């Protein structure tokens, strides 16, 4: 559950980053390559949010296995992104489209993004783990009240 919460936090952050990038890309067409590269780097840095949220969620409920959860968080969401980008490349190849980037170039970009995202996810998980746990409020005591006749 903690991995899903962390991946969801990264997904929401990536969604709003993409909205901003699309808005800027329509503003000036000459900026598009720079916007694309910057967006991919920012989306990889959101891996920190993924790992941090996962680790804090685990720590709140008293679990200490942050390493396994950071591994799942670092691999699950990026594998989905890599699968989507790979599927796009396969469909473009089947359609004989004129690709802007070759398959090898795209794989190198995805691998670079994957490594940066995974590194940031582990760093975020570690930072979330070393912080003190959020204090859980004590349960309220039951007060026995006499029932009137």
Topology:
Elements: H1 2-27, H2 32-45, H3 47-60, H4 66-94, H5 103-130
Helix pairs in contact: 1-2, 1-3, 1-4, 2-5, 3-4, 3-5, 4-5
Structural summary, described in words:
The structure is a single chain. By secondary structure, the protein is mainly alpha-helical. The protein has helices at residues 2-27, 32-45, 47-60, 66-94, 103-130. The protein has 5 helices and no strands. The longest helix has 29 residues, at 66-94. It is elongated, with a radius of gyration of 21 Å. The model has no long low-confidence stretch (mean pLDDT 80).
Strand content: under 5%
Number of strands: 0
Total helices: the number is: 5
What percent of residues adopt helix (DSSP H or I)? over 70%
pLDDT < 50 stretches: none
Which structural class do the helices and strands define?
A: mainly alpha
Can you tell me the overall shape?
Answer: elongated
Chain-averaged pLDDT:
80
The largest β sheet comes out as: none
- What is the number of domains? 1
Radius of gyration: 21 Å
Query: Termini distance?
Result: 49 Å
Strand and helix order: HHHHH
Keywords:
elongated; 5 helices; mainly alpha; 149 residues; 74% helix
Please summarize what this structure is.
This protein has 149 residues and is an all-alpha fold.
């Amino acid at each position: 559950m903690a991995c899903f919460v962390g991946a969801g936090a990264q997904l929401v952050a990536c969604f709003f980053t993409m909205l901003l990038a699309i808005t800027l890309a329509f503003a000036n067409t000459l900026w598009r390559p720079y916007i694309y590269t910057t967006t991919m780097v920012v989306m990889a840095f959101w891996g920190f949010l993924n790992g941090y949220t996962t680790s804090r969620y685990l720590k709140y409920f008293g679990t200490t296995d942050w390493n396994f959860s950071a591994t799942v968080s670092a691999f699950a969401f990026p594998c989905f992104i890599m699968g989507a980008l790979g599927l796009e490349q396969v469909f473009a190849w089947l359609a004989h489209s004129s690709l802007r980037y070759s398959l090898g170039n795209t794989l190198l970009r995805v691998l670079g993004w994957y490594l940066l995202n995974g590194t940031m996810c582990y760093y975020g998980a570690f930072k979330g783990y070393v912080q003190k746990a959020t204090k859980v409020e004590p349960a309220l005591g039951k007060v026995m009240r006499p029932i009137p006749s």
